[in-house]
Design a protein that fits this description.
This protein has 144 residues and is mostly helical. Helices cover 53% and strands 6% of the residues. The protein has a two-stranded antiparallel sheet with strand order 1-2. Helix 1 crosses helix 3, helix 1 crosses helix 7 and helix 2 crosses helix 3. The longest helix has 17 residues.
């Protein structure tokens, strides 16, 4: 459903939300922490900078940091910046033109799941995810 770029963008944003320092964090450091390719993550971070979710600074002390407070950034903001609205509106089976006039076999059930999923994305903030990751010991990487 969400692209791998979008999933990494969310994970990197949670990683930034957990940082107590106010400075810029190098993308290669975030990539290493998340066990993801640094060039791939750099491209993703640039999308979040363009969407005004991150600030970036070039140079030896450069990197990225959140552009707003964690309670002001919703997961939906990240999804829209990376995957766009189409991922939230498309057919679960990928059929073009799927809708009430020409539904796919999963249309009715998917509409209910999609509505709940979209609501979760709109209501969940980076602050919540960062706090939950810290307090509940959630992981951000494939390895435990």
């Amino acid at each position: 459903m969400l692209s791998s770029a979008c999933r990494y963008g969310i994970l990197a944003s949670i990683h930034l939300a957990r940082q107590e320092q106010d400075g810029y964090i190098p993308v290669r450091q975030i990539a290493s922490s998340l066990e993801v390719s640094s060039p791939f993550l750099s491209k993703i971070m640039q999308l979040l900078v363009t969407a005004n979710l991150l600030d970036s600074l070039r140079g030896p002390t450069g990197g990225v940091k959140l552009a707003r407070n964690t309670h002001d950034i919703r997961v939906n903001d990240i999804v829209l910046a990376i995957d766009g609205r189409k991922v939230l509106e498309s057919c679960v089976l990928g059929l073009p033109g799927c809708g009430s006039k020409a539904p796919c076999p999963m249309h009715a059930d998917w509409a209910l799941v999609r509505e709940r999923f979209c609501k979760m994305l709109e209501e969940t903030t980076l602050e919540e995810l960062g706090n939950d990751t810290e307090s509940k010991g959630f992981r951000l990487t494939p390895s435990s």
